[in-house]
Write a structure and sequence with these properties.
Length: 261
């Protein structure tokens, strides 16, 4: 597929919900089968250079088959793939949930572990979430750094990043971000941050790294009208255009065309 010029990048993030369509606006209400062709078709239309992929599905150890990240990269003719396992999927327990990056450009990547909440997390049905694995992915493209992220969804567990104890947990996340992310290199953070206002939850990060939101503030990124998905960038880039495209999935396809300065 054709990608942007040397200095222009189209960076997308799409929480795939395991490649499932949303049946309704209800929590965890998904179709039973994936439709990866749909997601590939929609991505191809925007001609991305890099795609961040929260909530992919990975094959569990010992099973045969290829991960969703690898299969989607093949459909987009992307040769560069990185993915990290999180925990058993809430969408389909036969899979591991993953966080991935696929790209037309070569990169190296590593995982930075995110802190676990120091308070118990319970789903609405009373079941406790016992596996808290979350990563900050750092992808080095040479001229710039891309960080893909998928934070814990506090509202699923009847908490919020706007009040305690979620507020203090958000500050602990912020400290990890500040330590891991460069202040002296062009930077993009993209993914499902699971809060609407980055400036409110991570004010020190936004100020110290001089971060700006690419996505239009009036656009929702999820079918319930919230804005958990973000593409933020520092002064090493100029945003040319950005959008969140509503479709068949719970989360919307978000992208930004950025000029590398």
């Amino acid at each position: 597929m054709t990608t942007g010029s040397k200095d222009n990048l189209i960076i997308a993030t799409w929480n795939l919900s395991g490649g499932r369509f949303a049946r309704s606006k209800g929590t965890f209400d998904y179709e039973s089968c994936e439709d990866l062709d749909y997601f590939a078709y929609e991505l191809i239309k925007i001609k991305p250079d890099i795609v961040c992929l929260p909530e992919t599905h990975l094959i569990k150890e010992g099973d045969s088959g290829r991960s969703m990240t690898a299969r989607l990269a093949e459909k987009l003719n992307f040769a560069n793939i990185y993915e990290a396992p999180l925990h058993t999927s809430h969408i389909d327990s036969q899979y591991m949930l993953g966080l991935g990056i696929i790209s037309a450009r070569a990169f190296t990547a590593r995982n930075v572990p995110l802190p676990q909440p120091d308070f118990p997390l319970f789903f609405a049905n009373g079941r406790q979430a016992t596996d808290h694995t979350r990563w900050l992915l750092l992808a080095d493209f040479g001229q710039f750094i891309l960080s893909a992220v998928h934070n814990w969804p506090m509202e699923v567990f009847q908490y919020s990043y706007d009040r305690e104890p979620g507020m203090s947990y958000g500050r602990s996340l912020e400290q990890v971000y500040l330590k891991a992310l460069p202040a002296d290199k062009p930077l993009v953070i993209a993914g499902d941050l699971n809060f609407d206002d980055t400036q409110s939850v991570m004010p020190h990060l936004c100020r110290q790294l001089n971060l700006s939101e690419a996505l239009p503030p009036e656009k929702a990124t999820r079918n319930v009208g919230t804005r958990p998905d973000h593409i933020v960038y520092n002064q090493g880039f100029h945003c040319i255009e950005a959008d969140a495209i509503q479709g068949m999935s719970e989360h919307y396809l978000c992208y930004a065309k950025l000029n590398l300065l």
